[in-house]
Every structure is written in C-alpha cells, then in structure tokens.
Amino acid sequence: MKLITLSIPLFFLLMGVEWLCGRLQGRRVFRGPDVFANLSLGAAQTVFTTVAVGLLAGAYLALYPYRLFDIPPSSALAWGVLMLGVDFAYYWFHRVSHRMNLAWAAHAPHHQSEDYNLAVALRQGPLQPLVSRVFYLPLALMGFPLTMFATAAALNALYQFWVHTELIDRLGPLEWVLVTPSHHRVHHACNGRYLDKNHGGILIIWDRLFGTFEPEQERPTYGTVKPVRTFNPLLAALAPFGELAARARKTPRVLDKLKVWLMPPEWTPPGVDTPAAEVMPGRPRFEVSTSRRAALYVGVVGVLTLLVTVLFLVRSPLLTVPMRLAFAGWFLTSLGGLGGVLEGKRWGPAVEAVRLAAAPLVVAAL
Fold first, then answer.
1. What is the total count of domains within the chain?
2. Residue where one domain finishes, among candidates 161, 195, 210
3. Helix axis angle, 292-315 relative to 32-51, nearest 10°?
C-alpha cells in the first residue's frame, strides 16, 4: 500500500505526459467525466483496502504459522520466486474474475470505461480485494512473510499501470514474454473475439500456456458488453451487483438463484429472457451534457476530495477503526454527490451540501 501511495505523483506525471503526446498527435486521450470516474473508483478501492486492512491481512497471517518453509527476506532467489508466484496467482484471480459472476461484479468497474488511457489503470472495483486476496493465500503457506508479499503485490500492480495506453504500439520480442499495451488493449476490449483474453499481470506466458492468449488484430471497442452508462463512480461500483440481484429475483428456481452468482456472465437461468448482447464495432461512447459551472465544481472539489483522501491514506495507521469507517462513509457520500452534480441530478447539490458541511470535521479528525 505504501508503494502505491508513494507512486501517486508519478501516476499523474505520466498521465500528463500521455495527454501531451496525444495533443501532439492530434488525439483526444482523456475525457473529463471519465477521468473523474476513473480516479474516484481507484481512490475508493484504496480507501476500502485501508479500512479493511485487518480483514485482508488477517487470513494471510492466520495461515502463515502453518508455513512449509521459513523464507528469508534477504534472499534474491526468494524474491524471484515470489514475484513469479504473485503473477501466477494474479493470472488465476483475473481469469476467475471474468468467468464467475460474483467475482466479475467486483472486477467489472475496472472495465467499464469506454476510453483507454493511463487514468483507466487507476479505475478499480472497490470490493475487488475481497476476491483477489484469496488467490494469494497459498503464498503464506509456502512461507513468504506478509511484508514480502505486500511489496511483491504492489510491484505487480505498479507494472500494470503503463500498459493502459493506446499510444504505445507493439514491442517486438517483448510481446512473447511480457504483458504489453497491445496485449492489454485486447483484454479491455468487448469485441467478441477479445472477450476474456490476456489475463496476465506482468507475464503473458500464462495466457500462452493456458489458452487465453489473443493477439491484437481488429480495433478494440472498450467497455463492458452491457455499458454502465454513468459517470457516477458510486453507481458504477454498485451497478454490477444490482444487475445480479435483479437477475436472481427474476429466476424461478431456488437453486438457479444461487447459480446466478457463481456462473459465467453469459449464463442465462432457465425461465429468464435475456436479450443477446452483441457489441458492434465503433459503438458510440456514453456522453453526458454538463454545464461549465458544474464541470468546474466537480473538477476543483473533486481534486480537493482526492487530496483529503491522500491525507487519510498517510494518516490511516494512526486512526482508530471507527474513524476509518467514518471517513469511508464521508468519502462514499462524496462520490455519489459529485457524480450527481456531474450528471445534473436534482439530488446532487443536496448531497454535496451535507458532505461539505461535514468536511471540516473530517479534516480535523485526520
């Protein structure tokens, strides 16, 4: 977590470089509402991970006493094996997250953006760590200390930042071994031939070995098969779970109601009519009509909210659990309120008024 937090200035610097390169090429790389949703969802996952740190680390620490080996953090070989192990576990977490509805609901926010740029790399499902951490537990049994694992997992995540861009073409022989922007563009596409392909984090060899590799050929259409059609980060995070709950309610048989959460996304329960989803090439991207005043408000206040969030991340080790939960509640209200203002919802200003009134108390508590 510390590595990710310390890397935040670098993320924004590289986004600025990408924006400048796009301008020089006459391309519009970023759209303001989409960037707002991306950054907000990334911050939401970081806040959730910070609040739930005891829960997420607890399972790892509970298994560690039953380890098979005592692995010294000073061993270069151990670090190499650990990086391979983390990437292997990430591949299977990522693959399962595309093939089981409940895991997909947690992961889907990362794929909702219909753009593809470095800001999309920061867009994450807030509840995704509850799924991903399960796949790393064997590393505790092998004997890797929690601090080693946390560092390796952070390095794995940092590598994946740079592959979220359209401005880097194929990279020659590296395409055979490493995950590259070309490979990951395929992964984020919802074209039929690209669905559920290229799940690797650092190494593409897992996809080549296990039959999930697909080279980039036709132009990708980004986003999910069913577009989320909102830039409100809170609604975007909840939408996949809401869709599953609605499908379960419509399902006649009790056993199928359970299977809705465990089957692949394309599975249709018997007795439920689900229109076939087909992604047409060049599908229009979702847009929202925002007044200049509202856009300026969301931009300025959104940046200030993210700065307060960074302060929370830095100060979190000193905060009690109730204080962390209180901040998380305020932060979620911020996402909903700012998203409401951005999309011109009548309730948006009212939500913003309430959470802005609480902002001084939140900052003082940090």
1. 2
2. 210
3. 20
DSSP 335-355: HHHHHHHHTT-TTHHHHHHHH
Is 135 part of any domain? yes
Full domain range(s) for residue 297:
292-365
Closest CA to 182 of 158, 153, 157, 207: 207
Which residue in this structure is represented by tokens 């880097």? 168
Name the β-bridge partners of 161: none
Report the predicted TM-score, pTM, of the whole model to 2 decimal places. 0.93
- Check whether residue 71 and residue 182 sit in a common domain: yes
Dist CA 175 CA 178 (whole Å): 6
pLDDT in 10s for each residue of the chain, 366 residues: 578 878 889 999 999 999 999 999 999 999 999 999 999 999 999 999 888 887 788 899 999 999 999 999 999 999 999 999 999 999 999 999 999 999 999 999 999 999 999 999 999 999 999 999 999 999 999 999 999 999 999 999 999 999 999 999 999 999 999 999 999 999 999 998 999 999 999 999 999 999 999 999 999 999 999 999 999 999 999 999 999 999 999 999 999 999 999 999 988 888 777 766 667 677 889 999 889 999 999 999 999 999 999 999 888 888 998 999 999 999 999 999 999 999 999 999 999 999 999 999 998 888
Q: Which amino acid is at 22?
A: G
Residues 69 and 191 in one domain: yes
Structure tokens at 122: 């920061």
Instruction: For residue 200, tell me if it sits in a domain.
Output: yes
The answer to whether residue 154 sits within a structural domain is yes
Q: Burial code of 19-58, b = ≥16 C-beta within 10 A, e = fewer?
A: beebeeeeeebbbebbbbbbbbbbbbbbbbbbbbbeebee
Q: Are residues 182 and 309 in the same domain?
A: no
Domain closes at, from 190, 210, 230: 210
Q: Rounded to a whole number, what is the largest CA-CA distance in the chain?
A: 60
Residues 315 and 193 in one domain: no
